[in-house]
Amino acid sequence: MEPAEENDIFEEEGVNISEAAKKSDEKSPDVESIQGTFLSQFKITVSDPEKRTKPSGIKMRETFVVYLIETTPKNAESSLIEEVTSLWRRYSEFELLRNYLVVIYPAVIVPPLPEKRANFIWNKITATDTFDNDFLERRRAGLESFLHRIAGHRKLGKDKIVKHFITKEESWREELMATGFQAKADSWLKKVNASLRVREPNLRYEQLKCYANNLQTNATALLKVRAKLAERVYGIYKIHSNYSRVFKEWALVEDSPLKEALQKSSIDVDAYGISIDNLIDEEDQIAEQLKEYLYFADSLKTICKKHEALQYDVEWYESSLTNALTEKKQLLSGPPKTFSFSGLKARLLGADAADVTETRLEVLETNITDLEKELEKHRVIAKEFLDEADEEVELFKTRKVMDLREIFVSYAVLQIKMNKEGAAYWKKIKTPFAAILENQA
Q: What whole-number percentage of the chain has pLDDT above 70?
């Protein structure tokens, strides 16, 4: 693979975009893996963002937004029908669920949540208020996508806590805390800087880290360019609203048939200017789908950090075992010829050198046995992590190619639709004037 292709976010090695295009109407490659998951049993929707307030401290009130999660059985005869409910969840509860999944399933690329603050917006969206209706609607769609991804995952989609998140409103948090995931999270956080101490980093995961950085860089660049284009196109359309007013005022000083032509054209010009609102909203929805992959890059980086933490554990036990074996070899080969504090201590206390050596050898034997067991255990954990993470990464890359293709095709189709509608409006705008010119000829 050429260097330029190593981090191509649009086409992975062994995946041809043209081949994916031929299969656009077929099922996603991981459709079979959702069998037995909650997504295969339930239809899950997130709707009706609602602003609420509650007391928070002395003479203070906390304002927040809740979202309605509804589950409907896909099979009317399902034995799970008794658990189908409608319940409300805060964004912070979605964050808590995701934190749990990241800790309990370390090798899984956990889908990202939608952004907490609006990023890559254009000037029409001047409000960064988290209670803005347009922003809440985009977040609602992102939360629904998040639930669909985890509920359809071959492992996450069978987790009891995930099931209770969408079906039980009251006792879910208590059950989550009872898992003890926070203690595991705190333990893992202590190793977040492990990459600074790993002696032999895994080449594949160094490449994955670069891949994630490039994915994030390219997605960011695309979103910035799109925001600038959206602002410019929106401005061009809205200028026509000014033309509409000009035509109306002009019509007041003209006689028929020019007066009628100006009046009719002003209506069409105004309709053309207004049409951008719905079109740009559709484009915003497509941009939100691309944002999801911008934040997926962080999920990939988290996988790399977890691997580095596991690799650090293996290397630490290898180093400790090597030191213990070296010390044992030195003791068996005779007293050291160099100065040591242990030897000085033995001489000062009058301890028998043979007894000290024998005692130390016994301790070393025990330590070596323990270290060998721990080393083997951590090697197994690291290997299991690598095997599962490799599979997750490959599934992610395949799904990413298909998702990005769908996003870009949708964007292209929308641009074609926008230009066709614009051409149709301009045809209607010029028709009355063309009729006047024909009559004058």
A: 79
H helix intervals, 333-352? 341-349
C-alpha triplet 377, 379, 381: angle, nearest 5°: 70
Quote the tokens at residue 107.
């090798």
Q: What is the C-alpha separation between 302 and 382, in angstroms, rounded?
A: 15
How far apart CA 115 and CA 119 sit, in angstroms, is 8
Asked if 314 contacts 379 with a C-beta cutoff of 8 angstroms, the reply is: yes
Residue 37 has φ and ψ, to the nearest 5°, of: -90, 170
Specify the 3-state DSSP secondary structure of 25. Answer: coil
Q: How confident is the model at residue 435 (pLDDT cuts 50, 70, 90)?
A: confident
- What token pair was written down for 7? 């981090």
- Say if residues 266 and 260 touch (Cβ distance below 8 Å): no
Full-model pTM: 0.80
Contact 52, 66 (CB under 8 A): yes
Given a contact cutoff of 8 angstroms between Cβ atoms, the answer to whether 214 and 128 are in contact is no
3-class DSSP state for residue 47? strand
CB atoms within 10 A of CB 397: 19
Considering only CA atoms, which of 139, 129, 128, 123 is closest in space to residue 227? 123
User: What SS3 class is residue 78?
Assistant: coil
Sign (positive or negative) of CA dihedral 427, 430, 434, 435: positive
Place of tokens 């800790």: 103
> What's the length of the chain?
441
Treating both helix axes as pointing N-terminal to C-terminal, what angle do 353-440 and 203-251 enclose, rounded to 10 degrees? Answer: 20
Residue among 393, 81, 360 at smallest CA distance from 209 = 393
Q: Is 363 helix (H, G, I), strand (E, B) or coil?
A: helix
- The answer to whether 110 touches 161, Cβ cutoff 8 Å, is no
Nearest to residue 212, comparing CAs of 354, 400, 347, 387?
400
Instruction: Tell whether the torsion through CA atoms of 369, 374, 380 and 386 is positive or negative.
Output: negative
